[in-house]
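User: My collaborator and I are trying to settle a disagreement about how two of our proteins should look. Neither of us wants to argue from intuition anymore, so we agreed to look at predicted structures for both before our next call. Could you fold the first one, then the second, and keep them clearly separated?

Assistant: That sounds like a sensible way to settle it. I'll keep them separate. The first protein:
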Amino acid sequence: MERVRGAFNNLVSDCKFFSPPFSYFFPATNAQFILCRPASLQLKSESYSRFNLQPQVEGETHMEAKMSDDVTDDVTQVESQAGAATRFEQTSSDHNKRNICYLSLGTLLVFLLDCCFVFFYIKGKLVYANYGRLEDLDVVLKKDIELNGSVLLLRKGKISYAEKVQVSKGASAVLIYPDIQDYKYEGDTALYGHVHLGCGDPYTPGFPSFNHTLFPPTKSSGLPEIPAQTITSNASSGFIGGFHMPPYRLGGSKNITVEVNNILVNTKIRNVFGVIKGFTDPDQYLVIGAQRDAWGRGYARANVGTCVLIELARAFSEMVKKDGFRPRRSIVFASWSAGEYGNVGATEWLEAYMSTIDKRLFTYISLDGLVMGRGSFTASSSPLLYSLIETTMKTVRTHPSVLIQFLSQTSSANVYPMSMDDPAYPFLAFSGIPSMSFHFTSKNSYPYYDTNLDNMDHLDYQTNHHSSEITALAAQCAGVMALRLVHDHVINLDVNQYGRIINKAVIPVYMRIKKLTNWLVEARGSFLRAVEKVNTSISNSDLNNEKTCRMINNRITAVEHSLLSPYVSPTQTPFRHLLLGRGPHTLASLGRIRDMEQLHVQLALATWTLQGCSYVMVGDIWDIHEQI
């Protein structure tokens, strides 16, 4: 990774740093980083899942899938004879485990419950429902095919596994497979994933799992009530293809039995942190994080991000110790564990320090999945970070580096709303921290995510054998954004960007229920006026004055957290963000509420959440001139 560090150092060498007026130098001990060997999460457990495809009258097709700890074994056919059952034994990695995790403060260890068994036995008609989106299920229902009690066969993609299970409309079980129209790899390639519609330990939702002897298990509202299993495309033969493909069949006539046997056992995970303390505002910190472990090889998912994380930590440390760089704010480098289970390591950390994180952690940058191709740049983030991403890409494009040839010369970055399975989503929607993920991709998406084919050779092929160069470019982007966030006088969070997002969210609600939305429209106006006050304060203030600068930054950094609804429980509704979360409290859900009493309540709560955000930006209560 010398190329990463060299490219990043070359880029930042052109930047000018203005040290704050302090007489002391950054001590070497403040720049320590604890290195931990990237390793897979060791789970000494075995999951067993079996399903039978049973025609009603003639013959029987029997398939058996068994998951073990060996992540390198492939699916092998062990029995196949004419007129006999076709039996498969699968020894892929342990992607069907339902593990219950607990966190200990002192050593940052997460423990699982004592060994116990979870058993499901479901029988129903097999129905193919494309990707399992609401519009896909509506098509099936219009064909007069009964979904209640059925076993849905769904294609991977478009939405997360958890969302597929959540919207399954009365189905008794869900099977998910990679369709050959979308994924061209071998038909016996197994998928990894989880179906928890949430994040963190699913048995301590909303609170940290420090010591599980003190906290009885509390089931997350996001855990599915029905079994779900990934299968190979070979096992789904006869149902492959989209709605308009000739091989496509809706099904609904053959019986299928899904039997799931899980064993839950104790294990532990570790989060690893390194800190470079700031010189002016050390209590405000930026976190740069990456998932360290993976179910399979996890080359693009975990390895690349971990390498960049370590090299950025080393580069920043050397800049402080050797080049005299003095960041105004602190930088925390975080290596998360158990990311594959729903960002368990990161979420438990957020839950542990919920009362203080929102006042100190002002931005999170995720390095997961940084490189998945070449030629395109995509990002998902809080609207507060849109401008920073845009200016960073312009800076990187204009830098005379040979690495720029691997990035297409588009005028702007492609920034999309953050999805629920994004590693940065818990920071944004659960904790109210401005967060971002970004990726270098090809026109064709990287198909090996969530499989054991996510290895160095496949990523190198996807990047046309330029993985190292593109990784260096990604490190440059992350490094430049981090520099601006920790060193500029005013933190690079653009509150203007939320005005457009709020307008877009409020207008559909207003069009449906005009008589009830006067309060909401007024709250939107209050928010926009507060944004103008922030802009005026920045323009008219002496930003070299540390006290003035800190007051402005306090107003800016509080915006995201104030958009978390205080009226819902993080135990029942973890993603409390008014605009980017999930649940009946969001502005997006107001237009779908049919019960008028519930609509009145949710509208009032959403209005006061938005109004409260505007008060935060105004600052002191004696500066608030809004009529209540």
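The second protein, kept apart from the first:
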Amino acid sequence: MHYLLGTTMSYTHAAVIWPLLCFCVTLYKGHELASVALLASAIYAPAGGHAGRGGQGMAAVWQQVLAVDARYNAYRTPTFPQFRTQYIRRRSQLLRENAKAGHPPALRRQYLRLRGQLLGQRYGPLSEPGSARAYSNSIVRSSRTTLDRMEDFEDDPRALGARGHRRSVSRGSYQLQAQMNRAVYEDRPPGSVVPTSAAEASRAMAGDTSLSENYAFAGMYHVFDQHVDEAVPRVRFANDDRHRLACCSLDGSISLCQLVPAPPTVLRVLRGHTRGVSDFAWSLSNDILVSTSLDATMRIWASEDGRCIREIPDPDGAELLCCTFQPVNNNLTVVGNAKHNVHVMNISTGKKVKGGSSKLTGRVLALSFDAPGRLLWAGDDRGSVFSFLFDMATGKLTKAKRLVVHEGSPVTSISARSWVSREARDPSLLINACLNKLLLYRVVDNEGTLQLKRSFPIEQSSHPVRSIFCPLMSFRQGACVVTGSEDMCVHFFDVERAAKAAVNKLQGHSAPVLDVSFNCDESLLASSDASGMVIVWRREQK
């Protein structure tokens, strides 16, 4: 057997591969042992002899192998889910180590094929998780109540200046900010949403490296599966924080996680909602979280100890589907509900702000402010995106513009970015709308009018998938966006490339990827899926 495994196999490797080989022998007796030997040698062949191009190819193949493993992971040890997490983490580690050795392309392809055949024979054909089907079906049926919410406020809060939970701003200072915004719109390079060829400052900061190099990932840092079997529609790193993470689940809870010191742990689980949690948001100072739920309430939580500070019922008694803080004044939160209404709520009083309500054409699934908090965009399940002028002094909403992205296609995510880069300041909106495309729009005026810039191919026809702008894109050569997808992958796109915009693709989820979130320095990326798994990916350090 050691001959089959190769002379470089460690005892740790043997402990992992021995059960697999025993399983292979059980399935493939007698004349099929040659396939078992091939499977073993493909995993643990001695290093050398095929480095170079083979090693580069294997670096991509390990993700395909891991994706196959992940899709069958839910079938393993049903009574011991913690083993599944340990297994997939160890598989990721071993595959990454093996990728450095380098193997002939034909051998890699044969191993991948054999691996899929063995798992298929052992566990049977794959089926879509029930919770994922329920989740996706509810979003596309407007005649029935839904579970989802969709919001994507990913503007960089550091652009707002000093941090704090509650901030106030005078009318005069806001007028000055509005004048600055107008200057941004008027002075931007025409037709450019990314660093121009003269963007030497950004290139110097990024080390003049390509986006593909910047967004290469070393593999999984950790896997959280405390919400297994229920979709996790939202995952978010805390503001300006590298290691604090939260995610909400349709099981009615919110998990607060800490990634450092090792091992990563779930600090606390926030419970209180009686139905699924559709969305949540961190305050600017990270001291509180606001959550919305299908139980028609929003709750305010203290992140330090997990206390529920306040429970606020929806003014219409409807399911709450999305929420976002007003970026300048975190005392105000905007929520969207299943009765087509947007409400501005004062979380200190628990009351709706006078004049802070407006009606859309469908259930409100997505919300996003621009960085100064002057413009709000809201998307609904009928395919419309509305822009609103937000009065900083009173919290009043004034409906400005409407864009029909595609009639009847739910708008599941809106992410706003005022400064795409330091040299090319072009306010933009990133939208997911169940069209098998990720859409990038330009904001062309101070009323939030949108103009389609370009689109990127993804798989999204029914699930509430979300996307984000990369937080440090202004210091890179080019500009990158990240999105989930129904093909169970995380996709990276360069908005500057005219052709072949795909930068990277992460495989490892076993269900449609619903949300993605970068930490503040882009060293870690978190993604969540419809089966309840949250994967934290570690970016390669250059």
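Some points you might bring to the call about the second protein. The CA atoms of residues 189 and 424 lie 6 Å apart. DSSP finds ten helices and 28 strands in the chain.
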